[in-house]
Amino acid sequence: MSDGPNTIRMGATDRGIRAAVALLRRGGTVAFPTETVYGLGADARVERAVAGIYRAKGRPARNPLIVHVADAAAADALIDLPEAGRAAGAAFWPGPLTLVAPVRDGAGIAPICRAGAPTLAVRVPAAPLALDLLRAFGGPLAAPSANVSGKVSPTSADHVMEELTGRIDGVIDGGDCAVGLESTILGFEDGRPVLLRPGGVTVEALEAALGPVAAAGIVEDAAPSAPGQMTSHYAPGAALRLGAEAPRLGEAWLGFGPDPARGSAIARNLSPDGSLEEAAFNLFAHLRLLDDLLGGRGTIAVAAIPARGLGRAINDRLARAAAPR
Ligand code: TXA
Ligand code: MG
Questions:
Q1: Ligand 1 atom closest to residue 125's alpha carbon, by position in its atom list
Q2: In a domain, 191, yes or no
Q3: Which atom of ligand 1 is nearest to the CA of 96?
């Protein structure tokens, strides 16, 4: 049913959640808001349902999915977390943190979610609507970001509809996502935490709770790639020029902090006050808007973002969006 021409838009109400649950129980795909970005959900226990996610996004089959559950106990039933993983869950769930650990025997998750990996990525989201949906559904939901593979992640129901109308069964409209950047992904090596993707929980917060966190390779694309070459992801149509001091003639401008008029007709500011939280909230929506105004061509010049707190995740997404395609 994922290939039907109609995508139902549901309200953030009990009625909307009931309709979403009905679609999910029939093996459908339904986008829903989390505090990070909108996810494209399907029943994680049903291979055919999860296959609908890969189809709708055009996602490579080698790229595994995050499974969302309603609480840490449900996560514990799916994966075998080391001590540090339990501590991380206790400190940051529900919230923008994903933990990767060996899947338990009998977890009942469709293997397609793991794309061949022995580990499974699990997250307990904090957005009340996401938790309401998970409880009403009564099972685990596989959910990657609800965008076409490789494109900018969606932080509103409109973003989801722009790309996936006719390709998914529905979307629950819960307004804008509060954090605006994907979850932090944490794996473990010999029981020690390893950062797989910077995100909504800062490294500073993780280290305050867990002690040192090692930095690892990045997981956005499991395909072998030339060393030092980042895989394009989170990419608008326009090119990005990062760390810019000002736009050049014809470029759009994405500023950060006090930003005197820069002489570009097409300009946005991630946070005039220099707040990294506000910048994270605005990042994907501003990138989409500037890209639309440029007609998906040309260049967006982007101001330097401080490499601390959420700035690390922002810079990670910008670097991927700027990577060669
Ligand atoms: O905030 C988020 O994490 C959002 C919301 C919807 O929860 N989801 C999200 O999903 O960003 P997605 O699919 O866009 O990114 C998930 C990342 C991918 O880079 C994938 O390769 C990685 O998680 N991943 C999933 N399972 C993994 C595993 N077993 N080992 C390593 N990486 C894994
Ligand atoms: Mg994604």
A1: 7
A2: yes
A3: 1
pLDDT by residue (tens digit) across 230-252? 578 889 999 999 999 999 999 99
Residues 154, 270 share a domain: no
Per DSSP, the three-state class of 87 is: helix
For residues 157 and 30, membership in a common domain is answered with yes
Residue 3 falls inside a structural domain: no
Distance CA 127, CA 178 (A): 8
Closest CA to 53 of 123, 103, 119, 110: 110
204 and 261 inside one domain: no
If asked whether residues 142 and 273 sit together in one domain, one would say: no
99 in the same domain as 150:
yes
Protein residue with its CA nearest to atom 12 in ligand 1: 144
How does pLDDT run across 95-145, given as a tens digit for each residue? 999 999 999 999 999 999 999 999 999 999 999 999 999 999 999 999 999
- Flag whether 60 is in a domain: yes
Nearest ligand by distance to the CA of 219: 1
71: which 2 tokens? 């609480």
Task: Please check the confidence at residue 227 and state whether its pLDDT lies above 50.
Answer: no
User: In angstroms, rounded to a whole number, what is the distance separating the alpha carbons of residues 81 and 165?
Assistant: 37
74: containing domain: 8-215
Ligand 2 center to 263 CA (angstroms): 33
Note the pTM of the prediction, 2 decimals: 0.95
Asked if residue 46 and residue 140 are part of one domain, the reply reads yes
- Ligand 1, residues at Cβ distance < 6 Å: 34, 36-37, 39, 63-66, 96, 98, 100, 114, 117, 119-121, 123, 143-145, 182-183, 185, 196, 219-220
Domain total in the chain: 2
Q: What are the backbone dihedrals phi and psi of residue 62, each rounded to the nearest 5 degrees, phi first?
A: -80, -5
Q: Return the number of other C-beta atoms located less than 10 Å from residue 18's C-beta.
A: 11
Pocket test for ligand 1, best of 159, 182, 195 (most atoms within 8 A of CB): 182
Together in a domain, 84 and 188: yes
